[in-house]
UniProtKB/TrEMBL annotation:
Belongs to the carbon-nitrogen hydrolase superfamily. NIT1/NIT2 family. InterPro entries: Aliph_Amidase/BUP, C-N_Hydrolase, C-N_Hydrolase_sf, RamA-like, UPF0012_CS. Residues 1-236 form the CN hydrolase domain. Pfam families: CN_hydrolase. SUPFAM superfamilies: Carbon-nitrogen hydrolase (SSF56317). It comes from the Bacteria. One of its GO terms (molecular function) is N-carbamoylputrescine amidase activity. Signal peptide: none annotated. Keywords: Hydrolase. The keyword Hydrolase applies. This is Hydrolase.
Length: 259
């Protein structure tokens, strides 16, 4: 499966402009044969936009999701993007996956909120997100979730072939794409895909360095800090066969890890 990672910043605070950018990137990704396009954390609204977040929050089946579904159907590929979700009076930092027909497949609410800014704007999600799509099993993460190895291990134990992680990781934390992404891939024997924001946004400087790590920890593809559309091809069957011969999970001692 070919997967595209759109490393971009978009236009903070302008949902319409970001939908236009989504359309352009979706067309380009489809032209290059991608079956899925990843876009960063809070792609639709912008990340560091302060109190503007609640006003841009929408339900998971709101107008922007309908527009994004039309973009996916027009381009003929699935799209995963970050957005502020409004549900039952709360706002969540969420990721929505739409299939190539525009139908919603999965919606994940970030479970680990980072810093006072996020905790002031969002409620934490209360569930993980593991699902089957296009012949493979995926888990979803958003940014700070990556720092918690328990979540990646939960997905691995659930049979995930890959984890899709969208992010707004800033430059001081480039250890995430450089070290944590390949580590999570290796220790769980699955693909890790990391799609970050890039550039500057109201005083924040993003790390960029989006990329893909294979189940053996090898970096298959990576960006610098510039805006880019990265294409990676994932051979799921090859690594399923390697896991059939030997898995870290088979040697776990969970009775030693509790508490």
């Amino acid at each position: 499966m070919k997967i595209a990672l759109g490393q971009t910043i978009g236009t903070p605070g302008d949902v319409r402009a970001n939908l236009q950018l989504m359309r352009r990137l979706a067309r380009e990704a489809a032209t290059q044969g991608a079956a899925l396009l990843l876009l960063p954390e809070l792609f639709l609204s912008g990340y560091n936009i302060g109190d503007a977040v609640p006003g841009l929050a929408e339900p998971s089946e709101g107008p922007s999701a309908i527009a994004a579904g039309a973009i996916a159907a027009e381009a003929g590929l699935a799209i995963l993007y970050g957005y502020p979700e409004r549900a039952a009076g709360a706002v969540y930092n969420s990721a929505l996956l739409l299939d190539r027909t525009g139908r919603p497949v999965a919606n994940y609410r970030k479970t680990h909120l980072w810093g006072e800014f996020e905790r002031a704007q969002f409620q934490p999600g209360t569930a993980t997100c593991l699902f089957d799509f296009a012949g493979a099993r995926f888990g979803l993460m958003i940014c700070y979730d990556i720092d918690f190895p328990e979540l990646a291990r939960r997905y691995a134990l659930g049979g995930a072939d890959a984890i899709l992680a969208i992010s707004a990781t800033t430059a001081p934390y480039s250890v995430v794409p450089r070290k944590l992404i390949p580590a999570r891939a290796y220790e769980n024997q699955l693909f890790m895909l990391f799609c970050d924001r890039t550039g500057g946004e109201h005083g924040l400087d993003y790390a960029g360095e989006s990329g893909v790590a294979a189940p053996d920890g090898e970096i298959l593809a990576a960006c610098s800090r510039e805006e880019a559309l990265l294409i990676a091809e994932l051979d799921f069957e090859r690594y399923r066969q390697s896991r059939a011969g030997w898995r870290f999970a088979d040697d776990r001692r969970p009775e030693l890890y509790s508490g």
